[in-house]
UniProtKB/TrEMBL annotation:
Organism: Rufibacter roseus
Keywords annotated in UniProt: Membrane, Transmembrane, Transmembrane helix
Listed Pfam families: PepSY_TM (PF03929)
This protein's name: PepSY-associated TM helix domain-containing protein
Lineage: Bacteria, Pseudomonadati, Bacteroidota, Cytophagia, Cytophagales
Iron-sulfur keyword on record: no
């Protein structure tokens, strides 16, 4: 082993050079992640006239079936699902697909792509607007920058931007782990020094302490974000993580509703109120509803229910109902799932910070903000060390003047 070699120096070099190699990409990814954290809240705050409704005194909301019929007639389309919030002052959200592609283009109000989400006043039946806006377009761009660095690729081909973000995320995992090794002091009795910032020091000391202590506090959150984020970057990683967990990640995307039995048809269509009533019997608590209506004559109705509140968990309970007989086909309570399935189904929430409502999103926002600062404070530490070494060399190169008597 070479003279002067230490494991601490090795981890310090790994931390330094990996940070310098990926710093710019990580800065962009962390910054966009910070901005995106509260995108829903920001969109709603910018257009309160769309996302808030006035609750009349002693008012009763119109039935969801009335709202569906009115919207389908007015917009000439088919409602595929709706969201009913727990808060009375928030509008219902109805997802509608146009019958024919129009001037709006795929995915837009007149398109044949994804359904458009309409915000409907449940007390008057008036349409407040759609979720599409300049703000939603901005956050869509932020998301694309976060995931692909705005690099576009043909369908079925590898997106180089996605690969760059994925590789940088893997590097970030090693940066985090090596950073924790460096954080531990040589003498364990000095461990408290790594938890605080010495504000009385010069700017170099403050910068060093900010990088050291804030990196420690955000370590757990950033590691979870990185490990879950890789599920979007690489299929091989997602498959490997699924194998380790023993349950497929993102399996909800490919899941189809259970089939309904046409033999149970009574000639009457189930009302949304009756669907909610059946779901409430299976999962009896107040919350938000997301109802997916059958796309054809064979599918079932899917009701997803989540709790509402500052600390409310984002995990949904799911109830599937036969569209003809109203029979409850399956009830999936998140609390009843084994731990590995809970983790696999919560990858998106774990990455975005939606685990425990607004509370966890605040923690994630702060962690992302810290992560955005780390490449900056880390580069400044490296630059200051370079200048220090350069000054020492210059001092050593100066000739020693001796006085001749």
């Amino acid at each position: 082993m070479k003279k002067g070699f230490t494991w601490r120096k090795l981890f310090n070099d790994i931390h330094l050079w990996l940070g310098l190699a990926s710093g710019l990409v990580l800065f962009v990814v962390c910054l966009t992640g910070t901005i995106f954290t509260f995108h829903t809240e920001i969109e709603e705050a910018l257009e309160p006239e769309k996302y808030q409704v006035e609750v009349p005194a002693n008012a009763t909301a119109l039935s969801a079936d009335e709202l569906i019929t009115k919207l389908e007639r007015q917009e000439k389309g088919k409602v595929t699902g709706l969201q009913i919030p727990a808060h009375a002052e928030k509008p219902y959200r109805l997802m509608l697909k146009k019958e024919q592609a129009g001037e709006g283009g795929p995915g837009g109000p007149g398109g044949g792509g994804r359904p458009t989400t309409y915000l409907v006043n449940q007390y008057t039946g008036e349409i407040n607007g759609t979720t599409e806006s300049a703000a939603s377009e901005f956050f869509h761009t932020v998301e694309q920058l976060h995931r692909f660095l705005l690099v576009k690729a043909e369908p079925g081909t590898i997106n180089p931007g996605k690969v760059i973000v994925g590789v940088s995320t893997i590097i970030f995992v090693f940066i985090l782990l090596s950073g924790m090794v460096i954080w531990f002091p040589k003498k364990l009795k000095n461990w408290k020094k790594g938890l605080k910032v010495k504000t009385s020091g010069n700017w170099k000391r403050i910068n060093h302490d900010l990088h050291n202590s804030l990196g420690f506090y955000s370590f757990g959150f950033l590691l979870v974000m990185s490990l879950t984020g890789l599920c979007w970057s690489f299929e091989w990683y997602r498959d490997g993580a699924s194998a380790v967990l023993g349950d497929k990640i993102f399996k909800q995307r490919g899941e189809k509703p259970l089939p309904s039995d046409p033999a149970g048809a009574t000639g009457q269509t189930m009302t949304v109120a009756s669907m909610i009533n059946l779901a409430d019997q299976a999962v009896p608590y107040q919350g938000n509803y997301r109802i997916s209506l059958p796309s054809d004559s064979t599918g079932s109705i899917v009701v997803q229910k989540t709790e509402a509140g500052f600390f409310a968990p984002s995990a949904a309970d799911k109830v599937q109902i036969d569209q003809y007989s109203g029979k409850v086909l399956k009830v999936e309570k998140f609390s009843d799932k084994p731990f590995n399935e809970k983790v696999a189904s919560s990858v998106r929430a774990l990455h975005l910070g939606d685990v425990f409502g607004t509370f966890s999103k605040i923690l994630y926002f702060l962690a992302c903000l810290i992560a955005t600062s780390l490449p900056i404070t880390g580069t400044l530490i490296w630059w200051n060390k370079l200048k220090k070494k350069s000054n020492k060399k210059q001092m050593g190169a100066r000739p020693v003047l001796t006085q001749v008597s």
